[in-house]
Specification:
The complex is a heterotrimer of chains A (618), B (110) and C (463). By secondary structure, chain A is mainly α. Among the domains of chain A are: 143 residues, no CATH class; 44 residues. Chain A has 23 helices and seven strands. The longest helix of chain A has 32 residues. The longest helix of chain C is centred in the N-terminal third of the chain and has 29 residues. The radius of gyration of chain C is 21 Å and the shape is globular. Classes of the chains: A mainly alpha (618), B mainly alpha (110), C mainly alpha (463). Chains in contact: A-B, A-C, B-C.
Chain lengths: 618, 110, 463
Amino acid sequence: MELSIEIFILATLAFGLMAYVIGRLHKQLGSIMTILGSLTIFGGIAYLGFTGGLTGETAYLTFTQFEISEFGLFFAIIVSFVFAMVSFFNPFFIKQYKYPALYSMLFMFSLAGAIGVFFSSNLLYLFFFFEFVVWTSLFLIPMGRSKKAASWYYGFSAAGSFMLLFAILMIYNANNGSFHISGIGSVTGTTQIIVFIFMSGAAFTKLGAFPLHIWLPKVLTNAPDPVSAVFSGGLEKLGAFVALLAIVNMGGIGFIIPSIDMYFGQMIIATLGALTIVFGTLMAIRQDDAKKLLAYSSMSNGGYILVGFSMLTSQGVAGGLYHIVAHAIASTAAFLAIAAVARVAGTTKMKELGGIIHKMPVTYMVYLIAIISMAGIPPMGGFISKWMIFQAVIDKGMIFIAIATVFGSIGSFLYVFRPLAALFLGQELPQFKKTVKEAPFFMLLPMIILSLLSVYTGVLPGVIIDFINKIFVDMQLNYNIVMNGFAIEGYTSGIEGVGPSLLNPLLIACVFGVGVFVAFLIFIVLKKSKKIDLMDTYTAGNFVYTEEHLHYSVDFYAPLERLYEKYIHIMKNFYKSLANKVREFGAFMKYFFFTNKPEITVFWIVALMVFLLWGDVL
Amino acid sequence: MLQFAAIILLMLGLYGLLTQRNVIKIIISLNILEIGLNLFIISVGYFEGGLAPIFTSETPANPNFVDPLPQALVLTAIVIGVGTTALGLALARKIYQKYGTLNLDEMGEN
Amino acid sequence: MSAILLIAVPLLAAFISILVKKVSPYLLLLVSLFALVYPFFMDMSDVIIGGFDSPIGINLVVNKFALTSLIAVNGLFFLVVAVNIAQYKKLSSILLVALAGLNGLLLTGDLFNLFVFIEISGIAAYLITTTNKKPLQTFNYLVAGTVGSSLYLLGLIILYNMSGTLNMADMATFVEGNGMYTLFPFLLMFIGLGVEAKLLPFNSWVKGILGHSNNLSGAMIASVYATAIALVFGKLLAGVFQIEGTLALIIALVLGITILAGEAMAYASTKAREILLYSSIAQAGIVILLFTVGLGAWATFFAIANGVSKFILFGVVNRLTEEVGSDEMDQLKGSFVNNKLIGVSFTVAALSILGLPLFFGFVVKMNSLIGFFEPDFVSNLPGGNFIFPIIILVASVIEGVYFVKLLTKLWYKDSDVKVNFTPLFKYVVVVLAVALIVFGLFQGEVEELVASLINPGGVFIWN
């Protein structure tokens, strides 16, 4: 069977409109349309994509052109999958929204835009879809907690997409008026550097990488819970897509730094990626809000993708691509798990929660698996991608980048463990004893699927590695990852007789499984812990009134935080003061030119003419 | 010479617009500006010893007419100027009714 | 059928309407409908008045550009009048004069004639703004407008003295060989028109007028007049002016500052109407910029798209202000919760101004920007080809932030503001919003339409 990709885009839009119309009549039914829609789209694209049935012909959207590329397919499958999984949550959250029907429609529309971005071969329409995603997702955000997040989002997104536009127009200019996507690779000289800078800028904003990251935590914290999952797992990947085009597709930028065999442009990206990792990790450590914590973790994972891409080696780029998959799955699962908790508990603040595991064991497991993957611990997908990225970095001999990546991994132990402990473990809080229940089946279903996939990608990487190899061939890159049975081949050590390093995830998983089994045995055999009430604690003879402060997640890493807490708001303050400068400039101009006196205009006219007539200006 | 007179009037008008705080005086300044402008337009077509561009029985065979077009333009410009002035004065009256003063500084509204 | 009817009929109707006051609103509606329909049946030939051929006599230029602008401006005019006339019956004759003036502006091929029409439409505009009940602000507008048009006339007369012609086409050929000498008169004309076109140092009147506008004057000045003036100014810049040397530098500075400062001022404002008026200053700057650098065809549509959007934005905000009693954003918040249809139209108009895809604004903004990057494009302004696209993009970012802020406030805050919009207004606004979407979807057709404005030599037709 063959179908054009435009059919999928149009179908997504049609589903969106249907969701709106039905949603006007019945809220839940409308959101169920989003499930049907995104599942259909995901299924269709994945099935036809793997069987080679997708075509790029345009019969209706004749103004643009599509081409089916392997990397486009890769991204489209991931993003539509994330949308499909998240859509299961929509019916349960739809009542919280101010405009439920609109929500369902825009949800589908942003999926349509994302698919459009991944398959456009015309750069102008790639931008068209890129912007389309911006404004459709924009109106999803204020349905959540804060209205301000929307303008932050738009400011950064617009800056990002206009950088992309500028790069695209430069390419257009350099390629004699052609918008074809292959033109990215054929620009040279100064234009190449400008295009590289601006496209990377666009990628950084979308990915929420340092120093253009401010919007990400704001949006992910304040957007409605399922939307946060969509952003973190899905729409952020638009940035990764642009990064792939800019960093990998354009090849080396600038001169080569001989000692580490890296191009200068890629070196900068790697450095910024490493900073993103460190910064995201440090910020995540000090958050009290579980969603905000995950938001910063999302940011630092974006840094890994950038570091991987910028290495420009088989292992690095493949690691970056693998990380996109692993992170999409894990962060979607984590955000969904938090969303499930937030739905019943009404808050995501860690100090107000505790002991949820007693009521929501499945959600707990889902979250556990997700954070294991995000922290890069075997046997989850995140481990493999991080391993590949480490290896690429170390092979290049980039000590500081390597330290940063390791720091990010270690740091993620520190922070992802906290919501686990604070939300799920610990004493059960009295106010949740009655209200909290395990999430309904249709919410558990996507979470379980995501968890299984997390494990699957961590144990059997073959399918994805094959796909990545196909992408390399498709992009005409000289990279290849060799699979040796179940193991991924890494670099050869250079010592005679010693083969390439091998990563055998299956073996690791087995060892890990044995370890878990042993731990479980110990757990069974040893004495059970005693259950106590929250109030049953030492209080120096006083009654506990504000028990939140006694929650052990409060100021958990205070000594560590004290090391850097003075410096954390630098970037945020920078952007705030930038906004203030614009406002001041506006107020200044207003004061000067708009004082409502008739002579002001005359004054400026006379002043301009005097200036010009003064000595031969004209 | 005529041009200089015109330009001086223009400057005077602009000076008045810049300095005067009274609505009526501003309108007068506008008028001075316009008169200067009109004079300038006339001066463009005029030259020493030119005749009025009207054919009569006494017109010499090879008449040395001034350019008639600027004169036509000036007529239009004057009419428009009168219209603007009238409107300005009407507004001045409205302003006086509303604020009880014609001095811009005393109106207290920005 | 002659194009002169577009000017003569409204003027005649204006006289009649003074005599028969009772039927004057109907007369106005009838005539403005006529002015909207008539351009569709006009021949594309120049109209010569008084039997003198074109360099000597006055002529009206009827070409595709004129037709496009006539249809757009008269269409907007008709809608503004149709929506508001019930409230402002007394203004019928003045609006008829305004219609005559605007049509004359767009049609005339004579520079002095243009001055006359500027004044006619200007006086009508002053009178329209008296409905704001802010005589002082109107007075400011009058002073600024009169000084502006006087400067235009001064420049024009100097040019006439040099070239001996007032005809635009003739002037253009004269200017081509004598670029250096014409800088000063062109500067005077630029400043003069700049006053009306809301360019930055010369536009102090805008805040007083649009900041206190009502249903009629807001839409009239910000939408109809702004579009007409921008198109006429553009016509002169693209067709007559010779932009080089210092003049180019001045124009570049004025436009760059207008665009950036306009957006910054809008960003610094908290009143809905002020936001819109400063934003329209920036938009005017962009339109004039596009005309100046020779992207006139897209600039025409930029101006039209902007006019349509501003009609919706000002119309809605003024109505809200009238009901709520204040145009502070915080007072208006949540206004769309109970007026979803109006809210959606408002949103569409705002998103179109931001140049987001699916809307007309995207098509015009993108194509204008592409114009800067055509391989054979050479900017005639200092700063190279890429400075101005960057300015436009930076401005768009600022613009986006405050519009999104405004939209989220109007949509997502809770409030019990309930404003009644007349059904007619609702229909008009919704139809315009749908039009913005339709034009945004059929990009190919729009591009063809625009391409027809450019003759084979790649030069934008104006004469």
